[in-house]
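Reopening: structure tokens for the pyridoxal-5'-phosphate complex, inputs below.
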Amino acid sequence: MPPARFAPVYLDANATEPLRPDARGAIAAALDVTGNPSSVHGAGRAARRIMEDSRESLAVRFGVRPADLVFTSGGTEADALAIHALGGGRRVIIGATEHDAVRAAAPGATVLPVDRSGTADLDTLTSLLAEGPPALVCLMLANNETGVIQPVADAARICHRYGSWLHVDAVQAAGRIATDLSLFGADSMAISSHKLGGPAGAGALMLASAVSSIAPLIAGGGQERGRRGGTPPVAVIAGFAAAAEASGDAAALAPLRDRAERAAVACGAIVCGGDAPRLANTTSLALPGVRAETQVIALDLAGVAVSAGAACSSGKVAVSHVLQAMALGSLAGEAIRVSLPWNATAADVEAFAAAYSRMALRLARENPDAGRRTLVD
Ligand code: PLP
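Re-run output (same inputs, fresh job):
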């Protein structure tokens, strides 16, 4: 069998970040500790120590008490647990650009619109909350496709004025911008290990102390103070905490992101959400007239890994509900996401720029419409 071919330039960090060396070290050390953290003997206590040290470090980093942090299998489960626990018996309102982890956990939720830049409309949130009984509102801190950052602290204030709760999906923000539950004044917050340079397989739901006694989604053996059953993956959790400690601020990636954008815009691309505050590592680039899938494949063949705005787990490419909510019309099926990992280099971005220009030139020859349209409704 021929060896598998891997794209040498990886610009799909929002799908999963490369493992940080500190995380690798912590995982390796923890794998050598045999013991179930629920066991009372010395081996169990050793495993428990690793887990509780990890919990404490993550709690300090993200602004909660250690007792208010519940380990989960990842971001999807943390979102689902928040909505299950805090949304029960309440109406649920979700931002129009939320991740499917939130959308699928809140069927029938009222959708809060965003403007053309992708920012949630807080006047509409105020009217929705003033109209009815207390709600659970879900608003992401940073969007996975565009990187657009939502005003979650303002949203939390509005929610509390009407006796409502705010859940923040901070999966893409954690490790890239300041992410602190107590500073935001939110009631719960989800994060995920593999999105900040840790291993896949762990995440956390952080809770404000007032709501931290929640009903589990998975009851099992009563782990996590009865809030999430199941033997925890101690080594994965150790890697999660080490990655979070090593992660800082993605702001240093802004010049590289801007360089990638300039190269694409010179070929006719439109930056979706470019007017809003955004994560420094993320850009959503629509090339009018060219399907996102075609672009992803062309760039992959050129050795550059990016993703279509919305790739679902089946690998199929759907039209992006995020860009549709931003009223970007047919551009919603024509945008790729370029997301720089923590270890991105200028050479990576130059490789992207060259591959993108070659792709756009070739597609323009094949399809004279490519790159020609401007913003559409
Ligand atoms: N929330 C957002 C904003 C995401 O981007 C993702 C994953 O892409 C998730 C939640 C789900 O996280 P996980 O992959 O850890 O389940």
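Residues 21-246 form a domain with the Aspartate Aminotransferase; domain 2 fold (CATH 3.40.640.10). The first strand starts at residue 9 and ends at 10. Marking as resolved unless the reporter disagrees.
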